[in-house]
Amino acid sequence: MSGDKKLELLATVPLFARLRGRELERVGRLAEEIDVPADRVLIRQGAIGHEFFVIVDGRVRVERDGTVLNTRGPGDFVGEIALLDERPRLATVTTETPCRLLVLAHREFHTLLAEQPDIQLLVLKALAERVRQLEPERAD
Q1: What residues make up the domain containing 121?
Q2: pTM here?
């Protein structure tokens, strides 16, 4: 994909929507775009996390211990928890449909968070919301 098309694509992702110009170009250099077929495991529960995925097109299913927790679609992201705490993955994520994804490896993910406080805040807010969804009776 050309650089301009990739930047246009990045600008449609809510996580990056506030970025402009050089900030968006920086994300474009850090992120790799990939197409993944349906029924492909992106993240396996218990494995060590090495990447973060932003869903551009398609849907993924999130499961823990064989139980479906939810699905995520365009604009959502997965894989941040294991990259933040550097511990094994908490869930398995499988593509339900063909997906177009943006992928950031461990180092690029941390670079992005360090350089873009707005993105760091959005990731942390999403993380808090996911904790609340997993433990609704305990969340205050």
Answers
A1: 3-134
A2: 0.80
For residue 139, being part of any structural domain is answered with no
Task: Please report whether residue 140 resides in a domain.
Answer: no
Determine, yes or no, domain membership for 129: yes
The verdict on residue 11 lying in a domain is: yes
Residue with tokens 């250099």, as numbered in its chain: 29
Average pLDDT for 30-58: 93
Q: Output the six-digit token pair for 96.
A: 């339900």
Q: Considering its fold, how many domains does the chain have in total?
A: 1
Strands 77-78 and 51-57: antiparallel
d(CA 123, CA 55): 14
Beta partners for 60?
72, 95
In this predicted structure, the answer to whether residue 77 has a pLDDT above a threshold of 70 is yes
Q: Is residue 12 classed as helix, strand or coil in its secondary structure?
A: coil
Q: DSSP state, 49?
A: P
- Identify the CATH number of the domain in which residue 48 sits: 2.60.120.10
* φ, ψ (nearest 5 deg) of residue 97: -130, 170
Q: What residues contact residue 31 under an 8 Å CB cut-off, 6+ apart?
A: 6, 10, 54, 102, 103, 104, 108
Cβ within 8 Å of residue 86, ≥6 positions away: 49
